[in-house]
Amino acid sequence: MENLLTAKQLQELLKVDRTTIYRMLKDGRLSGVKVGQQWRFPSADVDALISGKRNQEDLSPDDFFEALPIHCLQPIQDVFAEIAQVGSVVTDKEGIPLTRISNSCDFCKLILGSTEGRENCFSSWKEVAEHGGDVPKFFKCHAGLQYAQGHIIVERETVASLIGGQFYVETPDVEEERVRVRDLAEKYGISPALLEQAARDIRVCEKDRQKQLGIWLQRIADTFGEISCERAGLMTRLKQISEMSVISS
């Protein structure tokens, strides 16, 4: 049978008064069972509360999203993008960037410099981020470049996406490319000469490298999810300590 603590034992253990015990019971920080007219508290739950592990499973996706330590993710993303030779960004589920774009090509910088171009980039990233499944899938964005994603998943919920791309999967036809680039330049109010020059430097990602990129994306995204989970747990523990300290003082 599980060991149960009395309210008095719990007071002594947590160094709080009886009123605080019942407040914690009411707001869910403690769990208890009634034995007759008295509350009893499972010692395992109390140990978990003290260690800060109890509420990990109760954290919402928003808690994990808010726990994304962007200042930690950015340098990892920067290194990944440089090694993989792609442009990369972490976005929320709406395609809005949470990090600074790493290793962006000049072509995409020009597109992103236009208000309408930037909005269309966000829409393309949202489409990429919405793709489900365990294997990253490549998508063509509004400007004709390819992207794939790795989902940042915490507690089986997708909280953000690591997107990598800004490349072609094969060398484009010269004339078709010229027409497409000029149409984009006119649409977004960009100098055609500048955009054509930038388009010449767009990378081509071969099939074998595409497969490797997909693996890398998800591995880095998994790491970001683990970092987010750990940070969320730490934030919860600090909040519990703070609340207990304020109540005890």
Outline:
By secondary structure, the protein is of the alpha+beta class. Helix content is 54%, strand content 16%. Strands 4, 5, 6, 7 and 8 form a five-stranded mixed β-sheet that branches. The protein has a three-stranded antiparallel β-sheet with strand order 1-3-2.
Structure explained in plain terms:
It is elongated, with a radius of gyration of 25 Å. Strands 4, 5, 6, 7 and 8 form a 5-stranded mixed β-sheet that branches. Strands 1-3-2 form a 3-stranded antiparallel β-sheet. The model is unreliable at 53-61 (pLDDT under 50). The protein contains 10 helices and 8 strands. The protein is 54% helix and 16% strand. The chain has helices spanning 7-14, 18-26, 43-51, 61-66, 70-84, 106-112, 115-130, 174-188, 192-199, 207-248; strands at residues 4-6, 33-35, 38-42, 87-91, 139-140, 146-154, 157-168, 203-204. The protein has 2 domains: 4-51; 63-231, Beta-Lactamase, CATH 3.30.450. Helix 5 (70-84) packs antiparallel against helix 10 (207-248) and helix 8 packs across helix 9 (192-199). By secondary structure, it is of the alpha+beta class.
